[in-house]
Amino acid sequence: MDLTHDRIRVIAGLVVVAALLLVIPATSIAAYYIAFLYLIFFWISMATSWTILSGFAGYWSFGHAAFFGTGVYAAATLATKFNWPFLWTIPAAGLLAAALGTGIGWLVFRLQRLRGELFALITISVTFVVAAIISNTPIDGGSGVYLISVSMPELFGSQPGTIYALGLALCLMTLLITYGVYRSRMGLGLFAIHDDEDVAEVKGVPTFRYKLGAIALASGLAGAVGSVYSINVSYVTVGETFEITTIMYPVVMSIFGGSRHWLGPALGAIIVTVALYGFPAGPEAALARGGVALGLILVVLLLPGGVMPALTRIWQKTAPRNLVPIPALPEPLVPAPRAEEAALAARHATVLQCKDVVKTFGGVQALKGVTLDVRQGEILGLVGPNGSGKSTLINVITGHFRLDRGTIDFAGTSIGQLPAHRVARLGIARSYQIPRPFNRLTVLDNVALAASFGDGHGEDEARRMAAHWLGYTGLARKAFDYPPALNLHERKFLELARGLAARPRVLLLDEVLSGLNNTEVDEALTLIRDIRDRGTTIIFVEHLMRAVNQLSDRIAVLNGGALIALGDPKAVMNDSEVVSVYLGKAHAS
Amino acid sequence: MLLEIDSLTVGYGGAPAIWDIALKVDDREIVSVIGPNGAGKSTFINTIAGLLKPERGTLRLAGVDLGKLAPHLVCRYGVALVPEGRRLFAGMTVEENLEIGCYRPEARKDRARSLDRVYALFPVLRERRLQLSGTLSGGQQQMVAIGRALMAEPRLLLLDEPSLGLAPTIVGEMFRAIELIQSEGVAILLVEQNVGQAMEIADRAYVLEEGRIVATGLPEELLAQSRIKEAYLGL
Amino acid sequence: MSHVSLSLIEQSLVTGILAGGLYGLLALGLSLSWGLLRLVNLGHFAIALLGAYLTWWMGTAFDIAPWWAGLIIIAVFFIYGIGLHWVFMRFGVTEMQSMLITFAFAVIIESTLQFLWTADFRRYETAWGTQSWVIGTLYVPKLSLIAFIVAGALAGATWAWLRYTYVGRALRACAEDAPIATAYGINHRALSFLLSGLCAAYAGVAGVFIALIATLAPSQIWAWVGVVFAVVIIGRLGNPIGALMGGVLIGVCEALTMAVVNPSWAPLVSFSVLIALLLFRPRWI
Q1: In chain C, whose CA is at the least distance from the CA of A250?
Q2: What ipTM was estimated for this complex?
Q3: CA angle, C195 as apex, C191 and C201 as ends, to 5°?
Q4: How far apart are CA C14 and CA C9, in angstroms?
Q5: Å between A96 CA and nearest CA of chain C
Q6: Which residues of B touch A586 (CB under 8 A)?
Q7: Residue A163: what are its φ and ψ, rounded to 5°?
Q8: How many CA atoms lie within 13 A of B67 on its CB side?
Q9: pLDDT tens-digit profile of B178-193?
């Protein structure tokens, strides 16, 4: 695995660059350049920290200025009114801003509707509220706060030298943290949230916790950066701290450089800062601002991922390399029986039990008290006309919807009220009828995510497992492609691979066969039987009755939200009620 | 012949969803297309309505090639769609929904008469004409969806699963309304999963399975064949 | 807190309502393009200010009366709106991307204004610009009242247009389900061009009044962003009357906070309303 290698290289590289930069103030370089470099560090930290939540998880925040401003005023207040030594204000500012960010996240992230532009809107509102509070309370009082008398240790014989070093240190810390998140399970989870939050949760990603963690890191870093900024400007005002550029530039820089890459925002920050502050005030500065804006429009329209991914693409073309080599395939992988399975080893023991399950949507009962048991090691066909409640039942079992009434027990645990990611970790996985891959993760990472969060593997191990499952489902060649490049058949198999990678005890397959041609259907049937023979219980929703009858040990028929038949396939499909549901009363003789 | 479809192939993103479909609908005829979920029924009917572009084949309505028209021009030639799941404009009132139906210039002139016709067919809609359509019950919503299509004064009415999600008694009511519409001279192409009702009402029927027409004929002939049982029950 | 007289409250009510007219005027185009086209146009504020500068410039440099200037601006902006929408369509721009692109447009316009007319404050001086009617103890500035009446007329006309005409209803239908609207003969593309042009033209109208009422500076663009966003959301997206009423509500809240407490508390009121709305009534949007 090259990953560890990559980690060492990046971390070492960052530390070496930082060490080299630390030498600069000791040279006889003009103070102007020191100040300019600090500005670059400042914007790199702002843009990079913004991206942890907003770039990775796709929750665009215009509240970065609020967290930054909290840090600015925390430092100013602690240093001037409480006479704290300045260095101590840095962690305090970070913690305070992180507390604010976490609080906001705790309120907002529970509401599913507050995604996208509404999240942007609520964060920008928070910025204005924070600004109004600070300006109207003794924190600022409307006249600004002077930090001139605040003393600071002098590195390199001057205060600007200290500020430079602090700015550099924070910048390095931000980059390391962001890289750490990027390369961790959490990073993978955040990317999945960006692409499809509901699916991420169902695959076992603790979405609420991760979003909260991401906003805590982003806001905390912005707060710490604000603290150093306050001493740098030595006079802070509400107008300047919360001005629209502070709100927008982190966003602009990240998007410019590429907000899904840990280094993208830094690149964007450097380009934009040089273009903006390279000119002193005056007409040229106005033109430079216009130029940056024009550049932003071009990047958004023509390079939707930003500059960094475009550069990596060129780089990879000249030097093609894969981060993860594909293991020798095909290498059939037998899922090791879990410990608990020994206890349940006896086939036909009930593994999943739904009792009187009721789910209502706006007054309409989608499930009207379904009672159903699923036995260890069986293939249960779940059929019924359109709108009969099959999808709702799947969504209730996997925890996507909470139960309104009744209970669902899975291997001794009541799961009816558990959030989806907990259910996934207990060992229930599903596939989607219309494949819902994470479109901006590679095929390999799609499966690795399921292995990591469903089966509890570390990142490297998860990728190794993912490669196996791709081999098993015949997708090994596509490991480094992105899902939109796959055809329907391959995407269906990717769904299957994601389901398998979680090594579930129960796998719910939602119309895996629809849209496949005859040979593909036969391939899929063989695969599904094989999965069952390796010990996984399968609930199989399908409209292709030939397949259902061939494959199922038992069939359950839903109609209008109620279970109308359950049992042996032949008997069920000849049941007069079932026949009348499908073919009309006249035919049910 | 009102509608003539020949070797029609339609797909999403390269993968065809229906292949080589041939189908005819005569004036004043009710034709049902039945088939299990995922067979391609909606793809088929949406293509006729102009929402999807055919990859191959022809779609002629009274001699006009619909497949070549811009999507918003298809309805001018007398096609109106009642889409699957109704898809009303939920934030608009019942009457506003109906008036979208007569948006095409030829139908606007007859707005008042068409409204009366719809309200005569579904009296409850007249009472609820100022109610937001999203707040209606499922059956009433289906009435609005059918009414909206009638406002366009179609020669061919396309119905996509009108029984979906409705209680059995309301389904019966809906099919009686459909027969009434036909008796006023409108040809109907009905796509259904509910085989019983769809067959009862149809003059002719087609069975669509995995994107292809696998059988066609009179309803009673088709029901007698094992083909349908196979498609639906896998027996 | 100092003693607040009744007449001060009354005067701030009048001031607030009239200020709300200008907010409503600015919010109108933003609300329509966001609600009906799903595009968030931050550039709206910038072109409104551009309109104001053009009105001032035509008036002071060429002696063109503001109403004639207004006609020219409205026509030009209408075409700009169509062009902008063409770019959005051509590149399949999403809601979030539209925010960024129009922000960039706003910065470009701001820089251009600064380049052409510097960052100094500009004031359009007219003989009648500062006249007021006096009713009892209340001052009613004539221009603000006219702005309010125009805002009311435009909002009312737009509301009626969306509600009672085929084209207006078609626009609302497209916003809910464009494919089905298309199946009923609605040419979605053509209508969205029309609407985008109209929104830009509304910004032009707002611009003329801004030129007459306010002092101009390029950075003024950003002063409105927050408040007008709050107005748009409170008034409900795509609802022209709502935009005006939201404007009045915020205007009055601000004027009262200014009179009773302190001017700088004003933003707190509008944004707290907005946050509460988003948190507790998310279906409002």
Answers
A1: C100
A2: 0.91
A3: 145
A4: 9
A5: 21
A6: 196, 200, 223
A7: -60, -40
A8: 17
A9: 999 999 999 999 998 7
